[in-house]
Amino acid sequence: MLPAFSIGNNSHAASKLFPATDLINFSIVFVLGFLSRTKQLAHKLLMLLAGILILDPAFARMISTIGAPFPFVPLLDSVFLAY
């Protein structure tokens, strides 16, 4: 039997939700960016947002490696979005 998978001390079911929402959000923003290729600024901003959204798994691994609590992941996302 496989060990229970957990992200940030969440339940197994909640931990499955995070990767699914990451993929859905990334896919929506990426498709919107792809469809707005003729609008230069909108395309650039949507593709930048898609790139930031796909960084969540890397942020989560980095946060868990340094031993910081899980809520730092959305905080790190917010820093990238604000910049």
Concise summary:
The chain has 83 residues and is mainly α.
Provide structural commentary.
By secondary structure, this protein is mainly alpha-helical. The chain has one domain. Helix content is 72%, strand content 0%. The mean pLDDT is 83.
SSE order and pairing:
Elements: H1 12-35, H2 40-53, H3 56-66, H4 72-82
Helix pairs in contact: 1-2, 3-4
Give descriptors for this structure.
single chain, about 80 residues, mainly alpha, 4 helices
Nearest-integer average pLDDT = 83
Structural class, by secondary structure, is mainly alpha
Estimate what percentage of residues fall within beta strands. under 5%
Tell me the number of helical segments per DSSP (H or I, 4 or more residues long): 4
| Main beta-sheet strand count, sense and barrel state | none
Straight-line N-to-C gap? 44 Å
Measured as a percent range, the helix fraction is: over 70%
Dominant shape: elongated
How many structural domains? 1
User: SSE string, helix = H, strand = E?
Assistant: HHHH
Q: What is the strand tally?
A: 0
Low-confidence stretches: none
Supply Rg. 15 Å
